Amino acid sequence: MKNTIFLMAMVGVLAVVSLWWIQPMRTAPAGGVAVAQAQATPTRTLHTTGTAVIRVQPDKAAVRLGVQTFASTPRESQAQNTRTVKAVLQAIRDEGILPQDIGTDYLTLRPEYDDWQHGQRQTVGYWTDNAVIVTLREVDKLSEVLRAALEAGATTVDDVTFSTTRARELRDQARAMAVKAAMEKARDLAGAVDLSVGEVQNISENSWSSYYGLWNSRGQWSNLQQNVAQIAPSSGAPQPDDGEFSLGQIVVQAQVDLTVSLK
User: Fold this and answer.
1) Rounded to an integer, what is the distance from CA 56 to the centroid of its chain?
2) Which domains are assigned to the chain?
3) Residue numbers in the chain where pLDDT is lower than 50
4) Which of 11, 142, 192, 253 has the greatest number of CB atoms lying within 10 Å of its CB?
5) DSSP notation for 11-25
6) pTM of the complete model beyond 0.70
């Protein structure tokens, strides 16, 4: 009899525990569905792009000058070239260019052959090519440096490139302008549908610079965009005679992609 009573008591305890355990299991799915529904609600976002362009006159130039000589022997060809290069370098220094702004770009020595005759070619001489790069920190000296170098014996002006010493400053300025443009566009678009802009979700940036203007093969300056207004001239930038050359423009551009939340 006692065993029967004890067994019934144990069954009752187990039944109570089972009901206590099952009750949370039944209510859990309802809470879980609510959480899942909350997580499934998408965040409304808006993506815009802002672009800014700054045009500035270059205040720095790099010139590649070439000296080419020909002689019947390698030694004589090199000797002639060395003499001419020394004269060219001296003429450049006389124009106020510092030695640290003058450097050798390349030096080559190559044979010259005559036409094929009876299956053979004879060496008729040797060419020596020497190129130096001159950095001009005052671009208004360009014409004088070119004339002095050519009069001293330089045979070619192989390349002239322009840049600005304010590149970092202008990139930062263009980036800030692009961000402002992207945010203004986002606010305008959101306001058009009676919404407002929330937090920035994502932002990326790309910036670059390019030069408009070139030195053509006839040794004359030409400008690819004569009608582009200069909106950010360099401080103290020279204004050369239009009859000599046009400096052209450095174009610094930044683009920002922006994603913001809507509320």
Assistant:
1) 16
2) 45-57+166-262 (3.30.110), 60-114+124-163 (3.30.70.2970)
3) 5-7, 9-11, 13-22, 25-26, 28, 215-243
4) 142
5) HHHHHHHHHHHHHHH
6) no
